[in-house]
Structure formats: C-alpha cells, structure tokens
Amino acid sequence: MDLPGIEEQLSDLKGVLVVARELGATVDLRTMLTRIEGAARHVMESERASVFLYDAKTDELYSYVATGVEEIRFSSKLGLAGAAIQERQLINVPDAYADPRFNPEVDRRTGFRTRNMLTLPLIGLDDAMVGVLQVLNKEQGSFTTWDEQLAATLAAQAGAAIQRQVLLEQYAEKQKLERDLDIARGIQQELLPDAPPEVDGFDIAGWNKPADQTGGDAFDFMALNGGRIAITIADATGHGIGPALVIAECRALLRATALASDEPSEIMARVNDLLVDDLPADRFVTCFFGLLDPSDTSLRFSSGGHGPLLYFRAADGQVVELPATGLPLGIMAGMRCDPVPPVSFQPGDMLVLVTDGFFEWLNANNEQFGMERLFDVVRNNRQLPSADLIQTLYREVLQFAGGTPQADDLTAVVIKKA
C-alpha cells in the first residue's frame, strides 16, 4: 500500500475530522456541498471536485456544486458517476480518456480537461443512494490507495450529512408550502359568500368543499340594483393553487362586468374574451351566470359549458336538465352564448347547480355516482330547504363512495321558489 508518512497521514485525517465537524454544524445544503467540494480538493490535493446529488424520481444525477461550472444534470446510468451509482463502490481511474465509462461531455461543455479521477458513491445511513463525489486531476501523479481511503472516509461522512440536510430542507419547504397554502385557502374562503342572499319568495344556498387546501371551484352571490341577484357557479380545470388563481380572476371579471351589463350572454362573452388573453391553452373555466329577478320570479342565465343544470318542476315532479348555452370560457376568443328563454319559477320549483366532483366521484368498483343518482337525490328530497338538500346530496355521495378519497372539488348552489 502506497502510504505517506505518519505526520502527513495525521494531517490528512485531521482535515477530514475538521470537515466532519463542520458538516454537523452546517444548516444550508449549498454551503454543505461547497465545503465537501473544498475539503475533497484540499485533502486529495486535486484541481477540482464535484458533488452530484441523486434524484430518485427522475433517476438522474445533478450538481449543486462543481468548481467553476453551472449545474449539470444527467442520467444516473451515464459515465463513471453512473457506474459508481450502479456498482456502489469507489472507482479510481488513472487515465480518464482511456476508460470507456468516462463521459467526456462535461469536459466539452466546460472546457476542462480531465486527466484522472476518483468517483465515490455517497450513501445515507439507511443505505439510500444520496449522490456521487468526484475528485479530478491529482496535482502530482495519480490518486493513491491512501487517497482512496481518505476519500471513502470523507464520502461516508458526507453521505450521512447530505441526507440529513436534504430531509431537513424538504421538511422546511413542505412546512412553508403548507403555510402558504393555508394563507391562500383563507383568502379563497373569504371570497365565498358569508351567507346566502335573502330574497323574498326564494330559498337560496351555496356550498363549497375543495379537494385540496385550495380549489378550482367557486360560487358567488352579488346584489344588484332593483333587488336582482347575480348568481355564479364556476369550475376551472384541475384543482389546487393554479385553478384557485384562475377561478379568483373569473369571479372578479364577472362581478366587474355585471355592473356594466344586464344581459347574461353579453357578460359571459366579455369575460370569455378577457380570460382567453390570460389563460394558457390547456386551461379553461366552465361557468354558469344567472340574474334572478324576484319581481317576476324569473332567472335569465348563460352557461359557458357548465352542467348539469337541474331544474325540478313541482307541477309534475320531474327533474329536467337545462342545456349549456356556449363553450367553456377561455378557449376561443369571440365565443358567444346562445340566447335561451328565462326560467320562470313556480312555487316549489328549484334549480340545482353542481360541479362535476359530485357525479364523477368513483367508488371502490370504479363506478361513478352518476347523473341518475343525482336526479334521484333531487327528486326524493325536494321538500328540504336548499342548504339541507345540498348536505343530503353530499352525504349520499359519501355513502356511495364508501371511503374512496375526494378527487375533485365540490360546489353546489340551489335556488328554490317558496
């Protein structure tokens, strides 16, 4: 074994010990990786060192730190770094370009010329792969067996320290994300009506339950002049923070536009054109917008791709589905909704508006709750107040689901004529 003198060995080991203590006190991943890189270059007397972290999700190695270069990302099956991952052992290459496993692409990208190198897998305490340490170009000659021992000692310390720090930073990021989502959820919930509107001769209720901390559904009630009420239910594609932002914009546009027009189809067209300018091609919003006038018990409405619109007729006990009048919002500029006759409420009639999270909820047999069950719940519980009908529908869906998790946002609005 090619060993240096005792004093040099002690000096090298002391250097590794100092690094180990520093790693234990470091609370920032980038700083930790920089120290590992610097220690490897110093102790192994080399020109360059790189720390590649292992991304298990993509099966790639990527570099936070590589002296003189920007981040590098590549498959964990490529090059000597990939070989160290696959073999889980140190690789000492005295002539890099003579080894077929060497990947010269990094040299070509950086302008650096690799002569020789040590490559070591970084493994955590639970035997999980953490990354790879590479030490390049011994200043004098090639890397020795003593260098291998020093590097292996450093790698063992580094693997455990990096694993701990990655877990700590992931936890901190998760905590921050949860706090941010809690704030976003609070803001979104504040946008929902505090209470249903009090309208003579009508019983109106709305309800919302997002699948995540924030959701892509919303409902809204807005008092207008003459005692009229603007009623909205909308569903942006997806659920979570992105759709929540989309639905907040849609709500704001509807409220602003409703103050400038009293024709639902015109309001919908204007909002559509504004959303087309803002939304990416894979985003859209289904939306129902209606103007309820209690003076003649009529509801003029427009539906941009939103359904079902269930109308219960008290006279014959039937539930009919009203048609959507146009495409979802945000897909195509210039979209216009077809005019439809207003709904004229008779005593006992009601309009039930829901988002697709209700009827698309799957049970353990991969069966949807479906439209027929939705019709039955409305028909069989027509005597209930609007708020109670919504809760009954929710309970029926939960019972049907049999414990399968909520996969989509749930929102419902019921307008019932007393």
Q: Could you please describe the fold and organization of this structure?
A:
By secondary structure, this protein is of the alpha+beta class. The chain has 2 domains: 6-168, GAF domain (Beta-Lactamase, 2-Layer Sandwich), CATH 3.30.450; 183-417, Phosphatase 2c, domain 1 (4-Layer Sandwich), CATH 3.60.40. Helix content is 38%, strand content 25%. The chain is built from 9 helices and 16 strands. It has helices spanning 6-25, 29-43, 79-87, 105-110, 145-191, 241-258, 264-278, 370-380, 386-401, and strands spanning 46-55, 60-66, 73-75, 91-93, 117-123, 129-138, 202-209, 217-223, 229-236, 285-293, 298-304, 309-313, 318-322, 343-344, 350-354, 410-417. The chain has a 6-stranded antiparallel β-sheet, with helices on both faces. Strand 12 and strand 13 form a beta hairpin. Helix 2 runs antiparallel to helix 5 (145-191). The longest helix is centred in the middle third of the chain and has 47 residues, at 145-191.
Name given to the CATH homologous superfamily of the largest domain: PPM-type phosphatase domain
CATH topology type of the largest domain = Phosphatase 2c, domain 1
Compute the CA-based radius of gyration.
32 Å
How many helices does DSSP assign? 9
CATH class value of the largest domain: Alpha Beta
Mean pLDDT: 87
Percent helix, as a range, is 25-40%
The global form is elongated
Distance between the termini: 96 Å
The low-pLDDT segments are: none
Overall tally of domains? 2
H-E string:
HHEEEHEHEEHEEEHHEEEEEEHHE
Structural class: alpha+beta
> Which CATH architecture of the largest domain is right?
4-Layer Sandwich
